[in-house]
Amino acid sequence: MFHENMKCHMHAAEIDGANVHAMDKASAGRTSPELSAANFARVLGHPLRISVVRLLANRGSMSFTSLMEALHVSQGLLGNHLARLLDGGVIACQKSGRISWYSVPDARIAEAVENLFGAAGAAPMKPAGPPSGMCFARRCTDHVGGLLGVRLLDWLIRNHVIALDGNDYRVIGAAGRFEPLLGDVMHIGPTSKKIAVGCLDTTEGRDHLGGVLGARLLSGLRDLGWAEEIPGSRTLILTCRGVRQLSDLNVIDASEFPQQDFGDGVDAATEGAHDGQ
Ligand SMILES: [Zn+2]
Predict the structure, then answer these.
(1) How far is CA 113 from CA 36, 44, 273, in A?
(2) Angle between helical axes of 64-71 and 75-87 (0-180°, round to 10)
(3) Are 82 and 9 in contact (CB under 8 A)?
(4) Which of 14, 16, 62, 184 keeps 20 to 30 A from 221, CA to CA?
(5) What's the 150 CA to ligand 1 centre distance in angstroms?
(6) pLDDT digits (tens, 9 = 90+) for 39-61
(7) How far is the CA of 185 from the centre of ligand 1 (A)?
(8) From 154-158, 218-222, 231-235, 260-264, the region with the lowest mean pLDDT
(9) How far apart are the CA of 154 and the centre of ligand 1, in A?
(10) Taking every annotated instance into account, which residue ranges of this chain make up the domain HTH arsR-type (predicted)?
(11) Which CATH number, 2.60.40.1930, 1.10.10.10, 3.20.20.300, 3.40.50.970, labels domain 18-119?
(12) What are the start-end ranges of the E strands in 43-193?
């Protein structure tokens, strides 16, 4: 089951799975479930490869770049380990345009990896945890990218503020409950910038919002104290107030954000804990 050889990556330089091939050859004609299981364990036998599988299992699918950013590893190192995982059929890869999307092809693989932690007596993975990091929200030039960016765009479409018009979006109604973030969208003065354009999100594989409205969303989130950018990174973190407000607006679900843990050192818990609801 884990023998599928799928390679569509462009970055993987070398495959350090030579011994797996040798083993396959040596035991040709004598495949056994034990051999398959041993090969599977061998392919997984590196902390970084385990991290990759867990990350992909949690996120669904990710591009090479987003994996590199999330794991803080070099292109070469990640490429080698991805090649090993692909070669062992533990992860799969699908090309869409110029981007390769990596994923875990079988839920049993993710389950097996999680079970390894229990069997090893290692601390279990933090259950789901609040959405965070570059994949959740990041600054993309002057607007919001990541899952949050995609959800903000969805909200504006769902609430008839903007609509797709050719390759861009056009304003079709007032910002309504988004006015604190966007201001008056019906009377935007002359600008050399497009009002609302889609920007392909590398981690979501869909558009988030750029243009004048995209930039207003980002500055609105910051000015209202709903989001902060981690210094030296493009990662955006929601403050407690931001979680509450965006949850009230049905952009996100506050239950995804446990009160205690906002991660990454932003002093959000303190900010929101004392100002009542
Ligand atoms: Zn963008």
Answers:
(1) 15, 8, 36
(2) 120
(3) yes
(4) 62
(5) 10
(6) 999 999 998 999 899 888 776 67
(7) 20
(8) 260-264
(9) 15
(10) 29-124
(11) 1.10.10.10
(12) 61-63, 92-96, 99-103, 138-140, 143-145, 162-165, 168-171
* Cβ 201 vs Cβ 207: under 8 Å: yes
In the chain, domain spans: 18-119, 138-273
Ligand 1 centroid, distance to 277 Cα (angstroms) = 32
Q: How far is the CA of 218 from the centre of ligand 1 (A)?
A: 11
| Cα(48) to centroid(ligand 1), Å | 29
How many angstroms separate the alpha carbon of residue 262 from the centre of ligand 1?
24
Whole-number Å distance, alpha carbon 80 to ligand 1 midpoint, is 29
Strand arrangement of the beta sheet that strand 207-210 belongs to: 162-165, 168-171, 196-200, 207-210
Helix axes 18-26, 33-44, angle to 10 degrees: 170
Give me ligand 1 centre to Cα 176, in Å. Answer: 24
Q: Give residue 70 CA to ligand 1 midpoint distance, Å.
A: 18
What confidence score (pLDDT) does residue 258 get? 58
**Confidence (pLDDT) at 129:** 52
Higher pLDDT, 134 or 63: 63
Q: What is the arithmetic mean of pLDDT over 124-144?
A: 74
Structure tokens at 115: 């079970």
16 CA to middle of ligand 1, Å? 36
pTM of this prediction exceeds 0.85: no
What is the average per-residue pLDDT within 219-231? 91
Ligand 1 centroid from CA 201, angstroms: 6
d(CA 153, CA 163): 10
